[in-house]
Amino acid sequence: MVWIEDRIEWQVDGKSVTIGVTRFGTGPCLLLLPAFSSISTREEMRPLQELLGQSFSTLAIDWPGFGDLPRPTVNWRPDLYRAFLRFVLADVVRPDVTVAAGHAASYALTEAAEHPASLGRLVLLSPTWRGPLPTMMKRRLKAFGAVAKAVDLPLAGAALYRLNVNGLVIGMMARAHVYSNPDWLTPERMATKRLVTEAVGARHASFRFVAGELDLLSDQQAFLEAGRRAGSDIRVLYGREAPPKSKAEMLALAELPNVKRVELPRGKLSFYEEFPDDAAAAIAAS
């Protein structure tokens, strides 16, 4: 089996976006949707993809506005991401299984609720519906949106973005919420993550996510309602050490009668990146 690195073009607001795609393996089709975050790309799925590729024909794809390629200046918003997911499902892959991490889970649930079976069997990794700032403040403030738009400004916006993605902040957030082992984010891995934040146009979608401007769902009730309507074959996987506020949302979703949950013995939000063997075994068993 060989790794195939590919690129696709997608039109948004009159602009063309180049999006990275990685294919690996043989068997039924499995779509991997990475989390939304300043340091997330399809590459975070690679260790998991390598394991799942022994049984599936896997495809990992970046979200527009994220990834490691240059990105145009766009007013990134939830309706664009819904349109992109529909484009992927119509023109790129028709999955038998969809694995969606973090914020991608709310988009996958919503699409499955409106178009049953369009994503196949759903496996949600550390599913979330609310961005970091609203989660931290326990509410959405109008100021968040204003700050997100300020990041679009040529000079001041770039400086504001840098405050959010410097090495100190990334390391602090990673240790607190993302990885269990504080030494996992080695200097080499940190350098790779920093390169993602430095891609041309990276700040526009990244800061909107942080501010909650890419939240598709308005509250927990909408999150749970999407889960109720998304079909009967849903799995929620999360790490035992997941941050309490995020874990509470995952457990609420997992309480639905059509959802089965799997708590992994170790890991925080990105348990599937840090402990891909655990995650792959859980996905295969589900």
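Next protein, fold it too.
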Amino acid sequence: MPPNYASVPGPRPRHRLRVVVGAAAAALLLGMVPAVRHGAESLIGAGGPDGPRVTVATWNMCGVTAWGCGEYGGGEQKAKALRSLAKDHGARAILVQEACRGDLDRARAGLGTAWQLAFQPYQQLDGAGGATPVDCGSGRGEAGIGILAAAPLTDVSPVAAPQPEHGLRRGILCATATATAAATVQPGGGLRLCVAHLSLPPTDRSDRAAELRDDQLSALLQAGTAGTAGTPGPAGTVFGGDFNSSPPGPRNKDAWIWPAAYFDTVQECAQNTPRQHTGFESTHENGLKLDYLFTALPRHGCAQEDTGFSDHRAELLTVAAAF
């Protein structure tokens, strides 16, 4: 049975209008901030008959004020929601999108010294090739994607995938969470994590007919199943994020963008049967499932959490793994 995740208290947000802005190639940041340890440390290594288990979450935080997110709470509320996903719901790794660097740093400072962050900012690319970061507003820093984990992060690397030549470049980022004892749990040690935020169609201002999600999904699948030197392969990876795409059902005209291995070689958090490719509960307030977590690891629970501070719900997946 799926774990029982309680709700984070907070107001129901209003619907936002997605606004596409331009972006360019992303820089990569990895850091650690000393902070006070917290009481959820006992969750690390908790397991069942098949060994240790880890809960991974994905959450689009809707942090950019200019993108219509001003009605979804401020930085402290979003940081508190992140801490709650860890402390109250057992998440040991959180994949984030539309996240503000300042909010992530604030959340990590309250989680403890075990937690590390890998962050890749969005970039706005103009028609002349100029690149500027996307600012969250209100002094909360740059916006981007990230991996927040209760373990050291190694082999941090952006994943090459087609991006708009003129428009918002979101990206894919992978890292391996590896604790001291991880090597004794599985070959290669640790858990490979990949976060993605796919392009909205049409997203390239230089070619409005361009569809990039198919190639981005392929690049993410390759990164999520191949591993890297010194890291685990498909059996030790969880990957996902905001795909800006509905599942490949018969009524989805864009079903062709999904590589065949999705929902087959790797299974989605909420997938009940090997043949299920659609019929999932929505993760966005517009009624669509846009957020995903995939793995080839044994799954031991999938749940959603409405934090009250985003138009996206968080998705939480528990897998047989350790770091």
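About the second fold: Residues 1-15, 17-45, 182-187, 228-234 have pLDDT under 50 and may be disordered.
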